[in-house]
Design a protein that fits this description.
This protein is of the alpha/beta class. It contains seven helices and 15 strands.
Length: 224
Amino acid sequence: MIHCIVLEDERPAQEVLLSYISKTPFLDCIGIYENGLDITQDKLQQADILFLDVQLPELNGISYLKTITNPPKVIVTTAYSSYAIEAFEEAVVDYLLKPFSFERFFKAVNRVRNNVIQQKNESDKNLFLYSDKTLYNIHIDDILFLKAEIDYVKVVSDEKSILILDSLRNWNEKLQNFRFIQIHRSYIININKITKIYGNQVYIGDEPIPIGKTYKELFMKKIK
């Protein structure tokens, strides 16, 4: 779900935007404001899209945008075309002139959609692992393999090995949407890191890892 905020001081315009948002299955409105000064930093961080009117009380929309550090994706909604150049200089992603149709609205949000989803997916790939009183930030794609060590799991990347209190079963569930597969009761491997397969062994770099009999058929289907 993509979260959005509406900054618009006119009730009819608010109602139009809410109607369009409700028709769009991947959008969720998390706040409606008439003044940008009322939007908290926490709320801005939760938002993926900001629908921004220009003519606002106290501080106009473009001036407000200039005060924000790391703003969400911004789609301007206004009755005035004269602000377009200034708006695009602030890296807004689209500029909708009122009154705009649902088709034009949908085109704007769909343009943002893939970019937002890609950013969300990338952020989901970073994990914080706690080991030896230290939090390590590791990207899922950098993991070579995981090995069960009694009550622990060793997470191995090119740069380091991190031993954490966990189970391989938990990791199997955590990594099911990524390119990982369990090939042995003690090993989960990153398929993208395989250098070769020889007999009943997979090589991750120069590291040989055994393929368990009960895992081999599923593993071979996965890589084919």
